[in-house]
Specification:
This is AraC-like ligand binding domain-containing protein. The chain is of the alpha+beta class. The chain contains 11 helices and 12 strands.
Amino acid sequence: MEKAIFLKNKHQPLSKELYFDFCGFSKTLPFHSFGPAIRHDYILHIVMEGKGIYRVKDRQYQLKKGDLFLIRPGDATFYLADGEEPWVYSWISFGGPVADKIIHHSLFKEDQYTMVSSEISKYVEIILACMNYSPENLADELQLTALTYQLLALLLEDGGHIRLGEQKNYSSLAIDTIQYIEEHYSKRLTVEAIAQHLAVNRSHLSRVFKNQLGISIKEYMIGVRINRAAFLLSLTEESVEAIAYQVGFNSLVVFSRMFKKFTGETATSYRKRMNNEKIKGVSAEQLKKQLEEQAIISWAT
């Protein structure tokens, strides 16, 4: 779970050469994780506080404040916040042939995924500037595209250096469990059913998963469902009841109770607050304060 403020382009981009997709800021809770997942566009994360791990292909990176990590289109990635010092990060997603060329000429180049930046504040300022615009407005979309070019120019000029990862393999059993939950969370799913699908003993599966991720399978399943519900509440007009059933709860009462338990507010109040979030013109420190005061919300970043 995480606390997040974000901006997403819900429409077809004006240009396919280089386009802005979404951006935002998150303050994660201990052991907040995302993935394994495959993205269709680039996502650049800037670690502002705390630490965590990023895993892609057969490499794992220990990251902290000042680090950048890149998610490339088509790569399966997984990242996990530290249990004691969970990270705060900002991110921006973009795509297009121009993005491919620029990334190739940056420190990331081909098959590089993380770097130590010489000054993260400049990236944060650009992403903050993006939050002042709406992708639904044509002039604003041009501004967002311009800011994306500006951020990529900054990436080319960054005097930082590459951070090398270590060879480390997560338990395939834990990864298969996460993947199965991500694909079937909307159905009636139990730990026993997952164990049967993976042809392993339930107790062994639960033990391996807890050792790898620090939370139980049941807690992770509920988190995935609440994450998805929060996303739908933020970006759709579907009823709370429809969303509850869509994410795998068989009772609106149970969903409402769990949503309040995990986020600290009702689904209705969450939706209302997200629709009225005012963040234009705020500084990075003011935004951090907003995240501190915000109830726990979720966004798949």
